[in-house]
């Protein structure tokens, strides 16, 4: 067993909160052989990133390695000096972060940042050789124009390309180990597949070992040889990928696996004569004159149904929501609420118009005023729209907290900062419900949440819909979410609707080519999905 | 202010708070504490320290200590009123500019830019010459000049809050402008504004003193630290440090306020070390 590259034993990492220390990583053991890819999965706060950074002998500010050992290729990282560890980093161990845009220096060309580690820091080769390697790697990463792309600055290339450029940069010194920390989480599915392919090819070609951190099971299934599941800093279980996917042992892992199986029951289709709650009719909207962001958009939202609006970033789905709320009056087309025309601008809508259409936001952090208590956040719309006061108001707030499954006595006087991400999103839902609306616009409400938490939110939304007859416009880029909750689907690309219809029809062929690309790009929970998809592409 | 928070405060902040408190007490109870009247001539001119007059007498034979104590009331009171006025104008305009945006923002911002472009002291001298010297005029002029800084700060921090989803949520709910500002924006920018209040107060204080020193501010015989320096400046040439006492009073107060402001900023920014 002398081919073991990284051996972590009983690692404990602590973080500081004020003057006390709490445990982030609690006694983790980890072994990685040369050329092997280990997938680390878990919710946020499970200690994945902290563990990943520890594999480089690094601990973030405010954290400390409290015990255990980290052995990299025969060297104990913890007994090295900081200079000794720095000599390993970049040269033998590299790191690829989640947000490539935030990690590149916008004032330097990509290729100059590529050569920085091998030439200036480690002095392994001269600049010309290093630039040649850069171009070769750009080519292997399937970047367009590999000779020229290095001369660009980070803002001149797309997110997916930048993520590949960063992976190339991590490979610049041909390290033995790369740590990938959620490298595709911020990308669209169609872009993600390109990045995944490129990463996998390069890692295999150079026989590089990797730790791949993600919360997306389907992604890790494509990349990793083995999977380790973490929960609150402790290991839940570890097994080879096929084994883990086929037969997870622990309850927690099973629950993770089951998340994707949530499906809403098909509902009877609305009759021809039913008046939709909201009708969007031939709407065109633009921020600058002559540059429409949404063009000729039409769809209906019927009583008690969920319309999912799907598309990549930049497809105009959030702009559609802005038009519906009146923040961006359309230049053409109109909106109907219960068959009556809705004034295009927010300023001209009555209180009742505003009450009927509510909104839930993607980032619960910025959607709730940090200085207001839950009582105030939920209470204000009740006061404002329904005019309830005193005891009645208090009762209504408590009812709503019950409805979103948060214990009123515990939570009513808390501030948003005292809640978890999922709880904050529930408060966002309660605030929308407080107005007693008929239609709620949900703008990517689950995309910032962990899968288990997101599933809880989806189930809650579903239950509320059944109970209160709500209609949802559900904006998302995640097709798994669409399958879980949608009744009708609208697929958007570049501001136009490419296909729409009931969910049952949309997930059956024939598809519009774009819908097809979207559907095929969603990673499936099978280890050879990526390989098969790529084969299909080549055949086509 | 919570006791628990105060307990964790650094020593400098506590020292600052104690000194500010002493100034406040002296200012409020000046009539009871001062051994002599504010404008009462009690002895010869420029008497030495010690003896009947602890800190000697000034150029007209008034008790220096008493005038210093009364000065705390006049100088600090006027500076406080001016700062409050500057803050009322500056923060309201800044909030309006940030929330409404568009041409309101353009108009207010360019107007403020224009005021800032003119050297403050010269502008103040000019305005006071036009409108005449007097306490009310001076408060008005300094407030308008200091308002520009408050405006810029308020606008900048409010801009960051205006784009938050919770402000949009309030707008979509149909809340009025005033409610948006008061309930959603103001609580989230209060901390930097409070800190700025302390800093501004120091600058206002210095401006009042400067104008008084030049003879355009608080008029005799009212006791005021700025004009007290001027009136007794001649003593310096004889190696007597008495004229420096009011100057020292100004300096100690400004430093104390800065200690406290540093601490408030530190807490507000959430920095740990």
UniProtKB/TrEMBL annotation, chain A:
Cellular component (GO) terms are:
plasma membrane
Q: Could you say which protein family the record assigns here?
A: Belongs to the ABC transporter superfamily.
Spell out the protein name for this chain.
ABC transporter
The UniProt entry lists membrane topology as: Peripheral membrane protein
Work out whether the entry's keyword set contains Nucleotide-binding.
yes
A single GO molecular-function term is:
ATP hydrolysis activity
Q: Which Pfam families match?
A: ABC_tran, oligo_HPY
Gene source species: Pseudovibrio exalbescens
Instruction: Give GO BP annotations, semicolon-separated.
Output: peptide transport
* Keyword entries, A-Z: ATP-binding, Cell membrane, Membrane, Nucleotide-binding, Transport
Which InterPro entries does the UniProt record give? AAA+_ATPase, ABC_Ni/Peptide_Import, ABC_transporter-like_ATP-bd, ABC_transporter-like_CS, Oligopep_ABC_C, P-loop_NTPase
TrEMBL record, chain B:
Question: Subcellular location, in the record's words?
Answer: Cell membrane
- Give GO cellular component annotations, separated by semicolons: plasma membrane
Q: Name one GO biological process term.
A: transmembrane transport
Q: Which Gene3D superfamilies match?
A: MetI-like (1.10.3720.10)
Where are its TM segments located? 12-34, 76-104, 116-145, 197-218, 244-265
Signal peptide boundaries: none
As for membrane topology, the entry says: Multi-pass membrane protein
PROSITE patterns found in the cross-reference section: ABC_TM1
Looking at the record, the residues that make up the ABC transmembrane type-1 domain are 72-265
Q: Which UniProt keywords apply?
A: Cell membrane, Membrane, Transmembrane, Transmembrane helix, Transport
- InterPro entries with a match to the protein in the record: BP-dependent_transpt_permease (IPR050366), MetI-like (IPR000515), MetI-like_sf (IPR035906)
Indicate the family of this protein.
Answer: Belongs to the binding-protein-dependent transport system permease family.
What is this protein's name? ABC transporter permease
Source organism phylogeny: Bacteria, Pseudomonadati, Pseudomonadota, Alphaproteobacteria, Hyphomicrobiales
């Amino acid at each position: 067993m002398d081919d073991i590259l990284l051996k972590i034993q009983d690692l404990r990492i602590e973080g500081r909160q004020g003057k006390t220390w709490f445990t982030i990583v609690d006694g983790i053991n980890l072994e990685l052989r040369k050329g092997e890819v280990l997938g680390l999965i878990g919710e946020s706060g499970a200690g994945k990133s902290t563990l990943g950074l520890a594999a480089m002998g690094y601990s973030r500010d405010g954290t400390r390695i409290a015990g255990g050992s980290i052995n990299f290729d025969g060297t104990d990282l913890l007994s090295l000096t900081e200079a000794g560890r720095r000599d390993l980093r970049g040269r033998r161990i590299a790191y690829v972060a989640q947000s490539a845009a935030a990690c590149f220096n916008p004032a330097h060309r990509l290729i100059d940042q590529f050569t920085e580690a091998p030439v200036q820091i480690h002095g392994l080769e001269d600049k010309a050789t290093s630039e040649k390697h850069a171009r070769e790697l750009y080519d292997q990463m399937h970047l367009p124009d590999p000779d020229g792309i290095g001369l660009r600055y980070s803002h001149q290339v797309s997110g997916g390309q930048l993520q590949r450029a960063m992976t190339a940069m991590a490979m610049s010194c041909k390290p033995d180990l790369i740590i990938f920390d959620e490298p595709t989480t911020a990308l669209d599915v169609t872009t993600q597949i390109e990045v995944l392919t490129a990463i996998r090819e390069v890692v295999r070609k150079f026989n590089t070992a990797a730790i791949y951190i993600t919360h997306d099971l389907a992604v890790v299934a494509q990349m990793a040889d083995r999977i380790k599941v973490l929960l609150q800093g402790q290991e839940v279980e570890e097994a080879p990928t096929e084994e883990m996917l086929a037969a997870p042992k622990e309850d927690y892992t099973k629950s993770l696996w089951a998340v994707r199986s949530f499906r809403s029951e098909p509902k009877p289709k609305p009759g021809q004569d039913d008046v939709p709650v909201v009708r969007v009719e031939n709407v065109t909207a633009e921020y600058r004159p002559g540059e429409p962001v949404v063009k000729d958009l039409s769809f209906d939202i019927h009583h008690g149904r969920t319309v999912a609006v799907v598309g990549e970033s930049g497809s105009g789905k959030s702009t559609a929501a802005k038009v519906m709320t009146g923040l961006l009056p359309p230049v053409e087309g109109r909106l109907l609420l219960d068959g009556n025309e809705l004034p295009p601008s927010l300023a001209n809508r009555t209180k009742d118009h505003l009450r009927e259409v509510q909104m839930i936001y993607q980032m619960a952090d910025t959607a709730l005023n940090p200085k207001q208590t839950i009582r105030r956040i939920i209470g204000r719309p009740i006061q404002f729209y329904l005019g309830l006061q005193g005891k009645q108001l208090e009762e209504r707030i408590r009812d709503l907290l019950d409805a979103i499954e948060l214990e009123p006595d515990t939570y009513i006087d808390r501030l948003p900062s005292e809640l978890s991400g999922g709880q904050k999103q529930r408060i966002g839902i309660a605030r929308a419900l407080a107005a007693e609306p008929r239609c709620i616009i949900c703008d990517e409400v689950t995309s910032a949440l962990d899968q288990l938490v997101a599933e809880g939110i989806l189930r809650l939304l579903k239950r509320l819909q059944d109970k209160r007859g709500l209609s949802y416009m559900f904006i998302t880029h995640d097709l798994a979410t669409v399958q879980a909750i949608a009744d009708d689907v609208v697929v958007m690309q570049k501001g136009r609707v490419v296909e729409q219809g009931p969910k049952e029809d949309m997930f059956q062929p024939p598809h519009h080519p774009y819908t097809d690309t979207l559907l095929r790009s969603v990673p499936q929970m099978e280890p050879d999905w990526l390989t098969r998809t790529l084969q299909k592409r080549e055949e086509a | 202010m919570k006791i628990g928070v105060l307990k964790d405060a650094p020593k400098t902040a506590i020292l600052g708070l104690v000194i500010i408190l002493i100034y406040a007490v002296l200012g409020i109870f000046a009539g009871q504490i001062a051994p002599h009247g504010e404008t009462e001539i009690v002895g010869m001119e420029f008497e030495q320290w010690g003896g009947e007059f602890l800190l000697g007498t000034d150029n007209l034979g008034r008790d220096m200590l008493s005038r210093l104590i009364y000065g705390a009331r006049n100088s600090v009171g006027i500076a406080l009123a001016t700062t409050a006025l500057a803050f009322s104008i500056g923060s309201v305009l800044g909030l309006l500019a940030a929330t409404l945006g568009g041409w309101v923002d353009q108009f207010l911002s360019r107007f403020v830019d224009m005021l800032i472009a003119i050297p403050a002291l010269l502008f103040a001298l000019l305005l006071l010459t036009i409108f005449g010297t007097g306490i009310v005029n001076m408060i008005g002029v300094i407030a308008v000049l200091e308002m520009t800084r408050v405006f810029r700060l308020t606008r900048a921090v409010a801009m960051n809050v205006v784009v938050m989803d919770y402000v949009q949520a309030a707008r979509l709910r149909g809340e009025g402008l005033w409610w948006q500002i008061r309930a959603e924006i103001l609580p989230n920018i209060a901390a930097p504004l409070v800190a700025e209040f302390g800093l501004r107060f120091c600058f206002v204080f210095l401006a009042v003193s400067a104008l008084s020193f030049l003879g355009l501010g608080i008029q005799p015989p009212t006791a005021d630290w700025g004009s007290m320096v001027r009136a007794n400046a001649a003593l310096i040439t004889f190696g007597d440090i008495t004229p420096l006492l009011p100057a020292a009073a100004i300096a100690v107060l400004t430093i104390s306020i800065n200690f406290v402001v540093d601490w408030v900023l530190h807490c507000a920014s959430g920095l740990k070390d």
